[in-house]
Amino acid sequence: MSKPRTPSVWLSKAAVNGALVLAVVYMLFPLVWLLTAATKDAGGLLAGNAFSFEGFDLGGNLSRVAEYNDGIYFRWYANSLLYAGLGALACSLVSVAAGYAFHVYDFRGKEKLFGLVLLGVLVPTTALALPMYLLASEVGIVNTYWAVLIPVLVNPFGVYLSRVFCAGYIPDEALEAARIDGAGEMRVFWSIGLRMVMPGFVTVFLFQFTAVWNNFFLPLVMLSDQKLYPLSLGLYAWNSNAHAEPDYYPLVVTGSLLAVVPLVVAFVSLQRHWKAGLTAGSVK
């Protein structure tokens, strides 16, 4: 027969659940504001009644975003998808390959080299923006797509995380069996190692996709042509104009709402793999 719950247990559960509810409200509040504010015109936003649905005009705001400056917003959208999608995919592959090499192979200076990778995790990306600009200027790729794509291909934290995943997911016996069957090292990595560590690949992809999608400072330094801007930089340019022309406010808010969609889609569609990665090693 189970013992009755004491008041302290109920209080503890109430405190924990209350804290979780507050955390959820804190995280969802900006999104709710964005959803309601995107339905307002400039007058409604400046009047401070963003949380009401009075004067609902979401369709008009979407139409104005699509038509402004010959649809430049969706050019920025495509640029962000290119930078974040292609950059995160290539970065994840590079990170997993490097993590796999650190886990599987023994070579001279291995741990010292990995120590340099860990040191790279401690360096803020903003501190590297100016050196990367100077390097890009030397090779003549400033104000091109490559100026943003190439720097995001390397992620020291992704390499570290990939090595951890490889250690937890890839048994040495599986690799040895493949080698005995005559598979080369590239075939072993591509057919066995990469498939086994796919939850780690997805985790690195999500981290990098989010980071590149929200990246602002690197494009600000590298790009001057508006047609190459990502969403973060394009919305910043609109917001800068909003102080002088309030009609830009609905464009900024509606554009920000649309900018959230790929992040939500990515996390929802890949959460199965991501959850599998987070629970790795929890049950033996």
Automatic annotation (TrEMBL):
Q: Which InterPro entries does the annotation name?
A: MetI-like, MetI-like_sf
A Pfam family of the record is: BPD_transp_1
Q: How does it sit in the membrane?
A: Multi-pass membrane protein
Subcellular localization, as worded in the UniProt entry: Cell membrane
Domain named ABC transmembrane type-1 is located at 77-269
Going by the UniProt record, its keywords in alphabetical order are: Cell membrane, Membrane, Transmembrane, Transmembrane helix, Transport
Please tell me where this protein is predominantly located: membrane
| Residue ranges crossing the lipid bilayer per the database entry | 14-35, 81-101, 113-134, 146-171, 192-213, 248-270
So what family is this one in? Answer: Belongs to the binding-protein-dependent transport system permease family.
Protein name as annotated: Carbohydrate ABC transporter permease
Report the source organism. Streptomyces tanashiensis
Task: Cite the source lineage.
Answer: Bacteria, Bacillati, Actinomycetota, Actinomycetes, Kitasatosporales
